[in-house]
Structure formats: C-alpha cells, structure tokens
C-alpha cells in the first residue's frame, strides 16, 4: 500500500454523530440530563476525573446492553457530510481513524447502519470497550489506565508509529487532521496539524482558553472541502486557523 496523502483522526460522539450516544443513554435511560451535566461540571472543574465521572454516568443506565444499542439505532443520526467525506478519503488514500471515549460495539453498530459495512471494514476504530456481566448488566472497559480512560493523544502517537510517520510536524511530509467537539479531544488535537472543532461545543471554549489553534465546522461537508483545498495546494493549513493570535 502506498503512503497516505494525509490522515484524518476523528472523535465519534457529537462529531461524526449529531448527538452523543453516551449522553443520550444517560439522559433518557439513566440518571437524567441534570445529574449528568452536574457530573460534567465536576469534571471540567477538576473535582473528579473523566474516567470516574463517565463511568458513574454509564452505571446509571440499567437497560441490558443489546437493548441500549437498539435504542441508539432508532435515535442517533449521522452528520450529513460524513459519508461523502469517508468515500472521498477512501478513494484518495486518506485513512480515517475514529479515536473515541465511547464503546466499540456501539460505534461499530452505528457505523454499519449509518454508513455501511464497507466503512466498517475500512475505518479503524480505537476506543473503549464493554464487558457484559453474567447478570446482564454491563460496564465500560477503559482502553488505558489514564485519568481519561482513553488518552486519545497516545492513540494518535501509536498510529503514527504504525504508519512510520514522524511525530514532529516539521519533519512530517503529510498533514494530520483532527475532528472533535469535546474536552477529551484537546490533547489529541495537539498531536495534529489542524483541528476541526464543531461549532457551539465546549471544545472551542477550551481551544481559546488553552491557545490551541482550530477551525470551526458545522458539517463534515466543510471539513471535506477544507481537506481537498489543502491537499490540492489551493490553500495552506494556516489559512483555516481562526484564532490566529495564538
């Protein structure tokens, strides 16, 4: 296989999907939105780490896991531009990696339904997993021992090793893109060359606070056009950075 022209890393929930499936489960089948938001604020304020808070949210969902998946299949929708983005990337040797704090069985099932089996075969998913217990209950299985449960930046560095790409952007011959919407995407974004941050979500607030360069998006249609413009030489990475003062 020839060397990729670029690499696209993307969060899943709230980025590829319009709703966060984990939040949707918690709000509708678990502790409810008010309690979830309260835990989210504790995470943001540093009172509890993401790993602990997220597990508490999911533990409030008592429905068997297969029924949770059925519930999500009926309610979760895809960003309307993602399928075209995937198809173009696949045709143009730009691999896509889903880097997620969610659970792999949910992502796989939604990906097959919303995009197709070929996408499932061609997109690499790096995420947490799930353990189904004998009594039918279930628990999230975190990918690593960090306070995030899944340190997305570490996963990106592992991919770069696998692809024999330099971790130093100045020495790297191809651009790396990251698409996200939440705080857990911040560390991952630092390992890439251009961050696409979903409009109106908390990631933008944190990018401004932490001085992380980003460009805003509302749909993957915009992301695709930006990637095409950069790879064709029509525009440069710097042309898309909105907080240029950083």
UniProtKB/TrEMBL annotation:
One example GO MF annotation: phosphatase activity
Keywords, sorted A to Z: Hydrolase
Keyword Repressor carried by entry: no
Entry-linked InterPro entries: HAD-like_hydrolase_phosphatase, HAD-like_sf, HAD_hydro_PyrdxlP_Pase-like, HAD_sf
Pfam families for the chain: HAD (PF12710)
Hydrolase keyword on record: yes
Protein name: BA75_03941T0
Organism for this UniProt entry: Komagataella pastoris (Yeast)
